[in-house]
Specification:
Length: 519
């Protein structure tokens, strides 16, 4: 009965069996290659981080946040980093550009879609085959909509990709041309009168020169050349999509910024948003990317969909009792790595899996003198980390997570924590307490963190932000244990109302000339 999957399971479930075995697991804290007690390890971490802050200031500490964490883990990590270390240097390798794209277009990082929209669509446009490969349960739902409800499935994919996907219309294009194709579709619906002029006038702010700036290179013939497809094929695709009243567009949340802007603009320009079966739907590759963004556990946001403006900083500092709140967005990615190489970052704490796997984390570890890694894998002992902390595997985690469509679910531990393994939020909490911040980090159970997270989203929120978990701010411990799935935000943008100063969405200028390949 769970609304996220309706009981359907994908092949990834077989990986759960691998998590049961303890072979190769890190089961005890390790300090410089030797087993150590939790008390001594926490004291060592607290001493090292305190010295780093005293000597080098807030910007000297960075956080690497991998995937596979629950919302409570992300919340405590972000609070400790930004509210008490005073640093917003958070590298999240799973973070795509959808957050910035939705903020620019809608005024807030809100995914307007729900899984049920797939069932109600008359056309499902899939941009890139990666969507199907990483979300087989969602694809089962897409195929059911096609077979049972007559939905038309259109696939845009690179050569040789997505051949196993049943589609009514397949457009094989060069990967880097997807943004050009969708931007051309946007121009086509405008020029052909297929846009919703009334919706645009009432609910969307369109820059004066938007259409003139979009026109060069986005006529059908220019798009056909860019995509290496016949112009007649491009026109047929445009007319098919333009005629669809209930359109759901599935795309990767890590798509290039130009492609994200083109898709969101298309739905705004045609009024295909804020109603059943009509929505853009950015699909994430990680289970709780939405929960991480809700808590602000990224470099660009503060917390609870708030920025670094003085009013937001004041409210968060009061609720947290923050000692030194970060004043501006932090570094991430290559910028953060350069700061490490330059010796500006002296301590790195890495929590969660390194997703996607890559050289960034290992390069960062070699540049920083004090390194802490919360992990499940004993093999990382050989990688030269100063300290290793034993984290739970997915089947040992207990807390909440938020799905791609804002659905809050209760993750319940299937197996007890082995040996000295502890939740990630517990480690962060104990270090904060050892550094003298026990009043702010009083947590003994995940429910206390969830309640505070709910209070923070509601504090000073007069309806300007859709993220508001106030219904669970007073939740009891037993009610938290029995929490059933629920979706925050209702039907976002219903009636054309957006969380901006004037209540209108924005058409965002599209830059496609330097886009990378299709996801």
């Amino acid at each position: 009965m769970h609304p996220a999957n309706g009981g359907l399971l994908c092949g990834r479930g077989h990986a759960l069996a691998d998590m049961v075995a303890l072979d190769g697991r890190l089961l005890h804290p390790m300090v410089e290659g030797r087993r150590q007690s939790w008390d001594r390890t926490i004291a060592r971490i607290a001493k090292g981080l305190s010295a780093t802050l005293a000597r080098h200031g807030p910007g000297s500490i960075a956080l690497h946040v991998g995937g596979g964490l629950l919302t409570e883990d992300y919340y405590v990590a972000n609070k400790l980093m930004k509210g008490f270390f005073g640093s917003a240097h958070i590298h999240a390798p799973w973070r795509g550009g959808i957050g910035e794209g939705q903020r620019a277009a809608f005024g807030e990082d809100v995914m307007p879609a729900a899984y049920e929209d797939v069932d109600r669509a008359d056309t499902i446009l899939m941009v890139g085959a990666q969507v199907a490969q990483t979300n087989p349960v969602l694809m089962t739902r897409v195929q059911a909509a096609r077979e049972e409800h007559g939905a038309r499935v259109i696939l845009l994919a690179g050569p040789g990709e997505g051949e196993a996907i049943d589609a009514d219309l397949r457009l094989t294009i060069a990967g880097a041309s997807a943004a050009r194709l969708i931007a051309g579709l946007l121009l086509h619906v405008h020029d052909s009168g297929a846009s919703d002029a009334g919706y645009l006038a009432r609910h969307v702010m369109v820059p004066d020169d938007f259409w003139d700036r979009l026109r060069p290179g986005h006529d059908i013939w220019s798009v056909a050349r860019a995509c290496a497809r016949p112009a007649a094929e491009i026109r047929a695709f445009y007319e098919c999509v333009a005629a669809s009243d209930r359109l759901v567009t599935l795309f990767d949340d890590d798509a290039p910024s130009g492609l994200i802007a083109a898709i969101l603009n298309l739905h705004l320009a045609t009024g295909r948003i804020g109603r059943p079966g009509a929505t853009p739907f950015a699909v994430s590759r990680t289970a709780n990317a939405m929960g991480a963004r809700e808590t602000g556990c990224v470099a660009t946001d503060l917390a609870a969909h708030r920025g670094f403006d003085p009013q937001a900083r004041g409210r968060i500092a009061r609720l947290w009792g923050a000692e030194r709140l970060a004043e501006e967005p932090g570094l991430e990615g290559e910028g953060l790595l350069r700061a490490m190489v330059a010796g500006k970052v002296k301590a790195l704490w890495s929590i969660g899996a390194d997703l996607p796997a890559g050289p960034w984390l290992q390069a960062a570890r070699r540049c920083v003198p004090l390194t802490i890694r919360s992990t499940t894998r004993l093999a990382e002992e050989a990688d030269g980390w100063t300290m290793l902390l034993p984290s739970p595997s997915w089947v040992e985690k207990d807390g909440t997570l938020t799905g791609m469509d804002r659905l809050v679910s209760r993750q319940r531990r299937l197996l007890t924590l082995p040996d000295e393994v502890k939740p990630d939020w517990w480690m962060l909490t104990r270090v904060a307490q050892a550094m003298g911040w026990g009043d702010a980090f009083y947590y003994e159970r995940a429910a206390e963190i969830y309640r505070e997270h709910g209070r923070l989203t509601a504090y000073g929120n007069d309806g300007a932000r859709l993220l508001n978990l106030k219904r669970d701010a007073p939740i009891s411990n037993p009610a938290y244990d029995e929490l059933t799935p629920w979706r925050w935000g209702g039907v976002p943008f219903d009636g054309g109302h957006f969380p901006t100063a004037d209540g209108k969405a924005r058409l965002v200028p599209i830059a496609v000339q330097a886009e990378a390949a299709m996801p």
